[in-house]
Structures are given as C-alpha cells and as structure tokens.
Amino acid sequence: MNLNISLSEFVEFMAALSLFFAILQTASHRLDFAIKTYTFQSLALSITMFLSVFYYFDYELIISAVLTLLIKAILIPNVMKKITEKIVEDESVKPFINFTYSILICVFIVIFSFYAMSNTFYSVSSSSMMQKILAIAVAIIFVGIFLMFARKKALIQVIGFLTLENGIILGATSTVKGLPLIVEVGVFFDVFVGAIMAGILIFHIKDTFDSLDTSKLSDLKE
Amino acid sequence: MITLLLTELIGIVILPFLAFNKNRYIQALLQFINFATFLYLFKSLKTNGPYYGTYFMLDSINLILIGIVSTIGFLTYLYSIGYLEKEKQLKETKLKEFYFWTNAFMFSMFLLVITSNLGIMWVAIEATTLSTTFLISFYKNKTAVEAAWKYIMLCSLGIALALFGIILIYFGVINITGAGLGSLNWENIIQVATNINKELLKISFIFVLVGFGTKMGLAPLHFWLPDAHSEAPTPISALMSSVLLSCSFYVIIRIFSIDVHAGLGNYIYHTLLYMGLFSIMLAAVFIPRSKDYKRLLAYSTMEHMGILAFSVGIGSFESLFASLLGLIAHALTKTLMFMGSGSILVNLHTKSIKDIRGLFAILPITAFFVGLGVFAITGAPPFLLFVSEFLTLLSAFKEGFMWQGILVLFGFSLIFFGFVESFFGMLTKEPTFSEKKEHVFILIPMGILLVAIIGFGLFLPNDIKNLIDSAINTIGVKR
Amino acid sequence: MDKVIGVLQLVLFVAIAPATKGFIHKLKLNLRGQKGPSIIQPYKDIFKLLKKESIISQDASFISRIAPIIVLLALIVNVCFIPVFSPHTLLSFTGDVIAFIYVFGLSTFFMALYGMDQGSAFGGLGSAREMTIASLAEPTLMMIMFTFSLEYNTSNISEIFIRVHNSSFSVPIAYVFSLLALFFVSMAENARIPFDNPETHLELTMVHEAMILEASGKYLAIFELSSYIKLLLFISIASNIFLPFLYSSNILLNILFYILKVFLFSIPISIVELSIAKFRFFRIPDLLMISFTLAVLGFVLYYA
Fold first, then answer.
1. ipTM, 2 decimals?
2. Cβ separation of C294 and A20 shorter than 8 Å?
3. pLDDT score, position B51
4. Is residue A2 part of a domain?
5. CA of A27, closest CA in chain C: separation in Å?
6. Cβ contacts (< 8 Å) between A218 and chain B: which residues?
7. Is A20 contained in some domain?
C-alpha cells in the first residue's frame, strides 16, 4: 500500500467534512454549539474552494474562497455570537423533530442525494469528483432546508438558511468553477446583508414576543 | 437606462438633508423622472429596436416591466404623500426610513428588469426581499414582525433554490460557450438554447419555478403572501402585489423562454398550468372566507398570479397575449384596490370587514373608486382585466384544456361572489363611522388608475398591442 | 504451518490484551498527573480473581454458569477471525465480516442475559442500557464493515487483510470517516467514556459494570478478560485493516510492528477519555447516530 492522496480526493474529503458539520448542526442541542459547527462548516467550505483553485486553475476562485472565509467563517458567526450574548435566554434550540430522528433523516438525505445525482448527472458531469461534490452540495442544501423547518428557535433557522447557501456555493464551485466574479460578490453581499437583517429581526421578535420561539409566531391565521 | 437606477440612488442620498415635508414631494418628482425615462425608452425601442449589452438590455419584454415599475412606482409615491400625511403621529426618522427602504426596493426592481445577466437578476431579486423586510415589519407590532419573519425566511429559502437553478443553466451553457460573465447573458443563452443538455434544463426549471414561484406567490408556496401583504404599509402592499410579484413573474418568463427555445415541450407548460390552476382554486376557497379586506386583496393577488401562470402554461399566442396583458391589468387594478383599502385603513384604523359599513357616507370618493374597482378586479366587462381573463378562458378551450377551463371559470365566479359580498357590505348600509376628510393626493393616483383601466379596457392603444406582440415573439410560442 | 501461525496469533492476542488495558489506564492517569498502577496490573487482577472463591446468587439459574464461558468463547472465536500479524488465521477459510459482527452480537447478548439473570435491580438496568447501545452501534459497525468489504470485493477478513497490504493499493481518504465512526463504535461497545465510565460504580451512570456487579471469583476474571479482548479487537481492526502502515513480510518484525501499532492506537483513546465528559444517557443515541452518519459518509464517498 502507499499513501499518495490525490488532490481531487482531498477536495472531496473537505466537501464531505463540510457536509458532516452541517449534519452535526442538526444534532446540536445548544445555540452556541450550532454556531460553532456552522463556523467549522464554512471553514471546510472555504478550504474546499481554495483547493479547487489548484484543481481547476481558475484564480477567481481564490477571491471566492477568501470571501467565504471572511464573511461566513468569521463575520457572520461573530455577529450570531453577539446576538446570543445580548439576548439572554435559555440556549436550547427547541426541536420540532427530536435530535436522533433528525440525524437519521439527514442520513437519508445524504443517501438520496447521492443516488439522485448519480442517476441524473451521469451524462453531463465530466469527472466523478464533480459528481460527488455536486451530490454533497445537494445534500447540504437539503440539510439546511430541513434545519429551517425542524427547529423552533429563530436563530437556528437563520443558520439553516446559511447552511443552504453554503451548499449552493459549493455546488457552484464544483460544477461551474464558481460564478462570474461580479455575480459571486453580489451573492455574498446579499447573504451577508440577509444574515444581518435576520439578526435585527430576531431582536424585534424578542422585543415583541419576549421569546425566540418561532412556534409562538402564530397570530396570523385565517 | 442608468437614469432609472440613478434617480433611486439620488432619492436615498438626499433623504437626510431635507425635512420630511419637502422630501416626499421631491421623491415623487424623482419617480416622475423615471416615468418620463420609460416613455423615452418606449420611443427609442420603437425606432432603434432591441438592445442587448453585457450588463443591460432593452427589449419588448422588459420594457413592459419597466413601464409597470415606473408607472406604479410614480403613482405610489404620489399616493404616499397623502398616506403618510395621515400617519403623522410617527417619528420623522421613521418616515424617512420608509423612504429609504422604498427607494432601495425600487432600485433593486429597476436593476432586476434592466439587467441582461441572470446572475445579477438573482442578486437584484434577493435585494428586493431584503429591502422589503423592514417595510413589512414597519409598524413593529406582533403580527407585522411575524409576517416579516415568515417573509424573509420563506423567500430567501425559495430564492436560494432559484440560484441553484440558475447555476445549473450556467453549467449547461459553459459546456458550449465556456465560462465567463457573458455565459449568463440572457441573449447569449437563447442563442445556444437548443444545444443545452435537456435533463439539466428540466431540473433547473423545477428549482427556478420553486424559487421564483415562492416569491411570486404561486399556490403551494404562497404562505408568506397574505401575511406580508396585509401587514405592510399600504403603499408597500400595492408595490409588492402589483410590481414585485410581476417582477418575479418576469424572471420566470425569461427562464421559461430559454426552455421554450431549447424545446423542452409539454413538461414546462404543464407544470406552470397546474400550478396556476391550483393557485386560482386556492384563492377561490379563501377569498369568500376572508375577514380582513387587505388579506382578501392578497388572496386576489394570488389568483391573478395563478391566472398569469395558467395562461402561460396554455402556451398559444392568444394565451401569452392574455398573460402579458393580464400582467399590466393586474398591476393597474390591484394598485387601485390597495390604494382604496389604504385610504379606508388610514382613516378608520381597522382591517376587519365586519366593522366597516356605509363607506359611501364616510369616504364617498374612495367608496366610488373601490366600488368600481371591485368589478375591475373580478374581471367584469368594461375593464382591462376582463379582456385578459376572457382571452385566457377562450384560449384554454381552444387548446383543449376543457375541464381546466371550466374549473377556472368556477373559481372566477366564487371569487366574484366573495368580493361582491365583502365589499358591498362595507360600502352600503348604515355608516359605522362619521364622515372623514379624504386627502387629495390619495385620490389623484386612484383617479388616474381608474381612467387607465377603463380607457385601456375599452380601447387598447396599438402601441401597447404591438409591444405585447413583439414580446411574445421574443419569448417564443409553443411549437 | 498455517495452523501453527493461527494458534500463535491467538495466543499473542490474548496475551497482550490485558497489557493494552493497563497501558491505556496508566497513560490516562499519567496525563492526569497521577502515578497510576503499572501496565501489568490487569494480569495481577486476573490471577488474583482466579484464586478467589466465586459466589453465585441463589436466584440465578444455569445461565449464570454458562454465560461467562460463552461470552469469552464468542470473543475468542472473533479473535480467530482477525489477522494479527499474518493473514493465516485459524478461521481464515470462513472469516466473514458478517459472521464477525454476529458472533460479536452473541457475546453481547449473553452478557445482557447474565445481567438479568442475577435477580438484582442493577443487572437488569445495565442489560437494558447495554442493549440500547448495542442495537444502535451495530448498524454503524455493519456499515463500516460493508464499506471495506465492498471496496475489496470480498467479505473474508483475511482476504481484505491481504489486499489492503498489497503494495499497489492507496488509502482512500474517505477512510477517515469510517475510522472516526469505528472509533465511536468501539468506545460505545467497550463501555468507555462518552458512553460509560469504566472506572466508577456509581449506580446511576454505570452500564457495563452494572451487569457484572454480582460476578465474583473466576467468573469476574473471565468477564474482565473478555472486556480486555473486546477492546483489543477493535484496536486491531483499526490498526490492521484501516490504516495498514508498518508491514513487512518478516513475521517476527511484524509482531513487533503490531504491538507498536496497538500502543499507538491506545493513545487517542486515553486522550479522548481525558478530554471529554461522559454524556447523559439520553444523548448517547445522538452520538451513535452521528457515528452512523460518519460511516454512511465514508460509504457514499466511495460508491457514488
């Protein structure tokens, strides 16, 4: 046996690590842990993007990787931490679906997306690495969506959305080697502003409802 | 074309320097400049033909949208002068905040309709979501915050999925033309559309439809719509309902057009058709049950969006004509209705249908406009929406969508019944309030709109007809 | 000759099993700043226990007499599946991964039976907890085993061993996930720290110790020995099949390498035990599901 790990394998590994952290979010009982896993997830994503530069030789990806690192792994988690510190409340995430089942559902999501991608993208993807990372990206997207619907706390829903965004960025990296720079910067800007605005809205929710539990947001009904 | 964006930016920049009282007139004036720009662009398109650049484009499809955004934008700003006069109890900074976000909202919508790049289109539509969030939570009470939360979460989720759809299209295109900003250019994609991998386009269409369908309020994805429309300040409800949703529809049309050119066939048509049908039926169920008139109008918006999707889904020339005409008609009519309801709300401070009786005695001119508006919005004859709805049904039967057409007709009658019951209860009978003074700037835009929908309904100018015709040719008809 | 090597492997394995336990324990205590007993303490414990009289509860049935033997035997059969320094094990002709898992299950089953047979409250409690953990850990173990049996197109452990050590083979990076999953599972199956604390007899938290609370004398000695063997089994799988470094064709050198690797792999166990606290029992399913996720990730990263 020998130990020559190819670059593409390493990229795959980092992407899968990002997926693993995304799943770990669904297992987190406490908000600070969820934020921490989100940080690691973004970090893994930015390393994936950074390594892809050497695989694709597309240097625009460096900018994307740096932006991911700055915005998603440093700025947004810090803002989130500030919010949790300011809003003193119990830190549990309050699941609609309990943690064990959540993880199990995520496992099914992973298997499903790998299955779906291997069938549909067989004809268009040029490399098996692209196919695998695309499957991972789709899995991250669905895990993000699942997180948005399976948790009651407002903050973790935002984390779910950001996870979904990470999945999309990963998908863009793997399939199209990153979007054109101007679009990519626009996307980052939107995501960042969106996260900040959701954070401010969380303060409003706290002010008006005295809790971050979104299941209490049920005044609007027919 | 840059003027459109510049005026909005100027609007934002001058906000802090002027007192609010002066500010609102100047803001309206800036919007008038945009309206004038639209007229200029209309003329230039007629003489010079379509223009496709790297960043911007101008063809008949987006000219319709520029027209809608600038016209409705101008009228709404005019209306806001009167509306905010009645909200004087709010702080000055709060009122300026209103203009700040509204200008940002208008800016992103203009960017959305004039850009030629699908990626920038996405950025702009996400920007509309962000800029309207704080407008929905403007009053900061429980229901408003709840609506804003639902809005930002659901729409961001949907639009993020749409980004994935756009990425898939881009993926298909770069296999042919190579990577770069130009490969996201709508015109360039259209040219290579037939060579793009069909499987990829099919998957991307689902993502795009789910994404922008959420924003457009199509049926299974509409949950944010009634809440947001009923909670936002009324000028914003009007803008969102008639302009923002039209803009989402516009993006769907652009991508739909790529798929038409690629020859995806019945798949895309039927998806749109049944989603539209479902929206109409759901709205027909909810409209008679509504207890809140702004909510009722929101469901009517859903119905209209359903009609648009339905008629695009039929796919013939007439139905596409009906759809684009319906887009214009919806924008004009729904703005009128929201303005009317805003006038009621700001004077009487209640949204409940039960509490309001005898509007003819309380707010006579508003009541007159709203009374006619009810017929206009349900698609009764002399008004513009009638032409569109009639054409939709006609083409549905012509193309062999029998039972679907009958269902839609059934939905229309339910909606008509619901509207007439709710609104005529409010208009007639013993008045529950004393007579209130109506602000002139609330009435002027409503008058303009009413004249427009009756005038266009009776006599559609040839210019508009030709514009729609050439837009349909750009989109492409079912083969 | 093959048989001789097989017997030799078995003997070596059983011989160093207590030392592994002793090493982990000592390392843990040393890292904590304590002196700790010497590495050969577990041997002394076993001999001491063997000399003592064994008392069996009067409520106990014949199960209490046969269960310790079956537990030990099942584990010894498992040892015969695992190549230690050479692929020629005693059961190499049939060393199937699925058989391995189920023989393993047999020992867990009899362990639980023994706990319940005592008629004491703690035994039943321990058995219930043990079965909960085992039933959740088993799918993960299965998934891990399938990952590499599919990779090498065989379910025979000795065959896998041969193919892994083939020089043309390169370690796939997805193994990291499977290895992590295996780590979690082995911690769970061996009743080690995030799942159970082997050092306490605190009634609320114990799992494994609760089951053998009533055992004494030579029965306890057998149970202790089985738990040492069980731990070494997992370490051997990790060191010999997952990360097949340090391998030569010389058997004597291989024995040395094997022992070295076992001690290397013991280090992370003691470090993890030191650095994290025991989880609440109701969090354990989550942890096991996470390890299952890891196993699945390792699996799909290969076969997609």
1. 0.91
2. yes
3. 86
4. no
5. 7
6. 146
7. yes
By a Cβ cutoff of 8 Å, what residues of chain A touch chain C?
A: 1-5, 9-10, 12-13, 16, 19-20, 23-24, 27, 29, 99-100, 103-104, 106-107, 110-111, 114, 117-118, 128, 131-132, 135
Selected for mutation to probe chain A from B97, B123, B221, B293 (highest A CB count within 10 Å) is B123
CA distance A170 to A42: 10
Range of the domain at A126: 7-216
The beta-carbon neighbor of C301 closest among A3, A12, A103 is: A12
Residue C253 domain boundaries: 2-303
Q: Is residue C121 a contact partner of residue C200, using CB atoms and an 8 Å limit?
A: no
Strand, helix or coil for residue A30: strand
Tokens of residue C22, six digits: 């002793």
Condensed to tens digits (0 to 9), the pLDDT of residues C271-286 reads: 888 888 777 777 888 8
Neighbours of chain A (3+ CB pairs under 8 A): B, C
Do the domain assignments include residue A122?
yes
Closest by Cα among C242, C113, C101, C96 to C155:
C96
pLDDT tens, A164-180?
A: 999 998 988 888 777 88
Name the E strands within B202-312: none
- Give me the number of domains chain C comprises: 1
Q: What is the mean pLDDT of chain B?
A: 88
Counting one residue from chain A and one from chain C, the pairs whose CB atoms sit within 8 A come to 83
pLDDT tens digits, one per residue of B305-323: 999 999 999 888 889 999 9
- Which residues on A lie below 8 Å from C142 (Cβ)? none
Partner-chain contact A193 B130, CB within 8 Å: yes
In terms of pLDDT, which residue wins out, A28 or B334? Answer: B334
Compute the distance between CA of residue B307 and CA of residue B312 in angstroms, rounded to an integer: 8
- How far, in Å, CA of B208 to CA of B373, rounded? 33
Paired residues of B117 in beta bridges: B185
Q: What is the pLDDT of residues B68-119, one digit of tens each?
A: 999 999 999 999 888 888 777 778 888 888 888 998 999 999 999 889 899 9
Query: Which of C161, C138, C147 is closest to C244 using CA atoms?
Result: C161
In a domain, A100, yes or no: yes
How many structural domains compose chain A?
A: 1
A76 closest CA partner among A179, A212, A199 = A199
Q: Supply B216's token pair.
A: 């457009």
